[in-house]
Specification:
Oligomer: single chain
Distance between the termini: 28 Å
Largest sheet: 26 strands, antiparallel, barrel
Shape: globular
Radius of gyration: 31 Å
Number of strands: 37
C-alpha cells in the first residue's frame, strides 16, 4: 500500500472516530487530546479556497446569446466568484460559495455549523430569461402589466392592411423574466440516530412572456405579465436504528399571482376588449413517511408513503367583458378545486447468492379530483356565444410494478433482465384504462483490461380497453382520432456502447441508441415516431501535462402523422393528408489543454460546432404542400490562458466567440402586417456574432494542515 493511500485511509478512520466520539455525552474539556496528534494527517485548519475577480467586455447586444447568462447587452461587466471554507479547531466552520456575483445570474450560498452536530445556511439565486427572438415590436402600451392599451391615435380596421397608424405606433419591447430565490435551511443532529432538517425557499418571478389574444378570426401577439411568488417548505425527521432507518416529513408549496387576468384592447374592428385568465393562486400540502429495513437472507426493503392535497379557489373571471354578451351570471364564484394525491413506493432488494441480485418494486400514484362540477355558458373569444358545457373532472390512478435480476458471470461480465408493467385508469378520458408491459435486458462485458462493451434492449406493448370519444366534448373529435398518449403503441429500443483504453494515454468510447414507436391502430393521429443517437468520444494524453479531446454526435427524430379535414364533415372525414417531420442535429468538438506550460502557464482551447435542421413534408390528397426547412448553425470557440504569479495568485485572460445563424420561416420576413388577420411582433430569428473578452485575478487561500503545524514545531 503506497503512502498516499495510507494517509487517506488513516484520515477517513480518524474522521469517523471523531464524529462518533463527538456524539458521546462527554464535555470537550474532560477529554485529553494531546496524544491524538497525527503529523501525517492533512487536516486543514483556517481559511481555504479561492476568490476570483474579473472584467468582461461583450462586443454586441443579443437577447439570444444572453438569454440565460446575463450578458445580453454590449459593453463592460464586472464579476466575482468566491469559494471559501473555514475550519476551526473545535469543529466549527463555515462555507461561502458565490458565482456570477456581478451579473444577473448571481448565486451565493453561506453555511455555518459544527461538524456532526448542526448547520444553518442561507442562499440567494437569480436567473434571467430573455425572449430568444430578435427585435420584437408591439403597438401596445403597458407591457408587463395586466392591462394592455392601444397606442394613442390608433385607428381600428378589418385587417392589418387597414391600420393607418401601424408604423407610427410600433415600439420595441423588451420581453424577459427574472426569477429570484431566497432560501434558508437548518439541520440539527441530536444523536447518531436522530436528526432534523428544514428547508425554506421564497421565489419571486417578474416580467413578461409571449402569448396570443384572439377574437375568433382576428388575433394579436401580446406580452403576458408575470408577477408570481412561491413559498416552499420541506421539513424532515430522520431516525436510525440497528438495521433500519425511518423518516417523516412535510412538504408545502404556496403559489400566489398578483394578477387574475390580462385585459387587452382589440386592434381590429369588433369587440372593444378581451380578457384571458392567468395562473391562479394554489397550494399543495403533503405528508410523507419513509423507511428502509434490513431483512434476513441479505434482503433490504425500502418503503415510502405520501398523501397530499392540492387546492385552488381563486375567483372566476366573468364569462366576457363584452357588454353586449355579459348578461348571464356564473353558477358559482370559484372552482373550489381540490385534488387528493396518494403515493406508495416499495422496493425489495435481495442477494440470495454472492453473484445474484434480485429486485422487486411497486409504485402507486393516485390523483382523486374532488373539484366542483357545474354547467357553464361559453363565450368564445369574447364575441361568440356557444352552448353551455359542464366542466370535466379528470383524475387518474397509476400502478406500476416490476422485477429484475442481475448476475455476475465472471470477471467484468454482468447481465441484467427485467419486466415492468404499468396500468393507468382514467376518468372522463377517451379510454378508461391502459396497460403497458416492458421486457428489457442488458449485458456489460469486459473483454480485456482495456476494452469493455455492452448492450441493452427493451420491448414495450401498450393497449387500451376501448377507445371512445368523450361524449361531452362539443364539437366532438373525429372518431378515427387516437391521442398518442392513450393509443395502442409498440416500442422497441436498443442501446450499444463500448469503452476502449487504446493506450495508457488514450481512450475511445462510442454509444448508439435507437427507439421506434409504432401506433398501428391509429388511423388519424400520430402513426410512428423514431429516435436515433450516436456519440463518439476520444481522449488523448499527449504528454504528461498536455491533453486533448474530440467528439462527434448526431441526434435524429422522425415522426409521421395522418390527419383528416373536410369542409362538409370536418369531424368525421377519413384520413386525407399526411405529415412527415424530421429533426436532425449534428455536433462536433475538440479541445486542447496545457497544464503548467513552461512551469507557470496553463492554456485551454475548445471549439464546438452544431448544425440543426428541421423539415416537415406534407402530402395533401396526393399533392406536396411541404413547409420550408428550419436551419440553425452554431460555432463556439473558447480560449483561456492563466499565469501563476506565485503559489497563491494567478492572472488569467480569456476570449469567447460565438456565431449563430438561424433560418426560421415562421418568423423571418413576417412583419406585423404580413398576415391579414394576425398582428405579430415582427420579430426575427436569432442571429448573432459575439466576442467576449475577459481578464481576471485569482487568489488562493491555503489553510494550515496538521503536517504544517508539526513541521513548524519540529524544524
Amino acid at each position: 500500500m503506497n503512502t498516499a493511500t495510507s494517509r487517506r485511509l488513516l484520515t477517513i478512520s480518524l474522521v469517523t472516530m471523531a464524529a462518533a466520539v463527538s456524539a458521546l455525552p462527554v464535555a470537550a474539556a474532560d477529554v485529553d487530546t494531546s496524544r491524538w496528534s497525527c503529523s501525517q494527517c492533512p487536516f486543514a485548519k483556517g481559511l481555504v479556497g479561492n476568490t476570483e475577480a474579473e472584467a468582461l467586455s461583450v462586443s454586441d447586444e443579443s437577447s439570444k446569446y444572453g438569454q440565460y447568462n446575463g450578458l445580453d447587452e454590449d459593453g463592460g461587466y464586472g464579476n466575482a466568484n468566491v469559494d471559501l471554507r473555514y475550519y476551526g479547531d473545535s469543529g466549527y466552520g463555515y462555507d461561502i460559495q458565490g458565482r456570477d456575483l456581478g451579473l444577473d445570474t448571481r448565486w451565493i450560498d453561506i453555511e455555518a455549523g459544527h461538524q456532526g452536530r448542526w448547520s444553518v445556511g442561507l442562499s440567494y439565486d437569480e436567473l434571467p430569461a430573455r425572449y430568444g427572438y430578435e427585435d420584437p415590436k408591439t403597438i401596445y402600451r403597458g407591457n408587463e402589466s395586466a392591462n394592455l392599451r392601444l397606442a394613442d391615435g390608433w385607428v381600428r380596421g378589418g385587417s392589418t392592411q387597414d391600420f393607418p397608424a401601424l408604423d407610427a405606433s410600433l415600439r420595441g419591447v423588451d420581453i424577459k423574466t427574472t426569477r429570484e430565490t431566497l432560501g434558508a435551511r437548518a439541520e440539527f443532529i441530536q444523536s447518531p440516530r436522530l436528526r432534523y432538517a428544514v428547508d425554506y425557499a421564497y421565489e419571486q418571478k417578474d416580467g413578461g412572456t409571449v402569448t396570443w389574444g384572439s377574437f375568433l378570426a382576428n388575433s394579436a401577439e401580446l406580452v403576458r405579465p408575470v408577477d408570481y411568488d412561491t413559498h416552499e417548505v420541506d421539513a424532515t425527521v430522520h431516525y436510525g436504528g440497528d438495521g433500519w432507518q425511518a423518516s417523516a416529513g412535510y412538504y408545502g408549496s404556496y403559489f400566489n399571482s398578483s394578477d387574475l387576468g390580462l385585459v387587452w384592447e382589440n386592434a381590429f374592428t369588433g369587440a372593444d376588449r378581451g380578457q384571458m385568465a392567468l395562473a391562479p393562486d394554489n397550494k399543495f400540502n403533503q405528508f410523507n413517511l419513509a423507511g428502509s429495513f434490513q431483512l434476513p437472507f441479505n434482503t433490504t426493503a425500502s418503503l415510502r408513503a405520501a398523501m397530499g392535497k392540492m387546492e385552488q379557489d381563486d375567483a372566476f373571471l366573468p364569462y366576457t367583458i363584452n357588454p353586449a354578451l355579459a348578461g348571464t351570471a356564473l353558477p358559482r364564484g370559484d372552482l373550489d378545486g381540490e385534488v387528493d394525491t396518494t403515493q406508495y413506493n416499495v422496493d425489495i432488494v435481495s442477494r440470495p447468492l454472492p453473484k445474484l441480485r434480485v429486485v422487486a418494486k411497486y409504485r402507486y400514484d393516485d390523483r382523486d379530483n374532488d373539484s366542483s362540477r357545474e354547467s357553464y355558458d361559453i363565450v368564445q373569444a369574447d364575441v361568440a356565444p356557444r352552448p353551455a358545457q359542464t366542466n370535466l373532472i379528470y383524475d387518474f390512478e397509476r400502478t406500476k410494478w416490476g422485477a429484475s435480476a442481475d448476475y455476475r458471470f465472471g470477471r467484468g461480465t454482468r447481465g441484467w433482465i427485467g419486466w415492468d408493467r404499468e396500468k393507468e385508469e382514467f376518468s372522463e378520458q377517451s379510454v378508461d384504462e391502459t396497460e403497458e408491459d416492458t421486457i428489457w435486458g442488458k449485458i456489460r462485458a469486459r473483454a480485456s483490461d482495456s476494452f469493455s462493451l455492452g448492450a441493452k434492449m427493451a420491448f414495450s406493448d401498450r393497449d387500451h380497453n376501448n377507445y371512445q370519444d368523450i361524449a361531452a366534448l362539443q364539437p366532438p373529435n373525429n372518431p378515427l382520432l387516437r391521442k398518442y398518449n392513450l393509443a395502442n403503441r409498440d416500442r422497441d429500443a436498443v442501446e450499444v456502447f463500448f469503452d476502449w483504453q487504446v493506450t495508457d494515454r488514450s481512450g475511445l468510447s462510442a454509444r448508439f441508441e435507437q427507439a421506434d414507436d409504432d401506433y398501428d391502430n391509429s388511423d388519424v393521429g400520430l402513426v410512428s415516431a423514431d429516435y436515433e443517437n450516436f456519440t463518439v468520444d476520444l481522449n488523448v494524453q499527449l504528454r504528461e501535462r498536455i491533453s486533448t479531446y474530440a467528439f462527434v454526435a448526431q441526434d435524429r427524430y422522425k415522426s409521421r402523422q395522418r390527419g383528416a379535414q373536410s369542409a362538409s364533415s370536418p369531424n368525421t372525414a377519413p384520413p386525407n393528408w399526411q405529415a412527415k417531420n424530421r429533426d436532425t442535429t449534428q455536433s462536433a468538438g475538440a479541445g486542447l489543454y496545457f497544464d503548467e506550460f513552461f512551469d507557470r502557464w496553463d492554456v485551454r482551447l475548445d471549439y464546438v460546432y452544431s448544425d440543426s435542421e428541421g423539415a416537415t413534408d406534407i402530402t395533401n390528397q396526393g399533392q406536396n404542400d411541404s413547409f420550408p426547412d428550419f436551419n440553425s448553425t452554431l460555432h463556439s470557440t473558447n480560449l483561456e490562458v492563466g499565469y501563476a504569479l506565485n503559489d497563491r495568485m494567478r492572472l488569467r485572460g480569456g476570449w469567447r466567440y460565438e456565431k449563430l445563424d438561424t433560418d426560421d420561416w415562421s418568423v423571418d420576413g413576417v412583419n406585423p402586417d404580413t398576415m391579414l388577420q394576425v398582428l405579430t411582433f415582427g420579430e426575427n430569428s436569432p442571429d448573432y456574432d459575439v466576442n467576449v473578452f475577459m481578464i481576471g485575478f485569482d487568489y488562493l487561500f491555503r489553510a494550515r494542515t496538521n503536517e504544517d503545524i508539526w513541521r513548524a514545531q519540529n524544524p
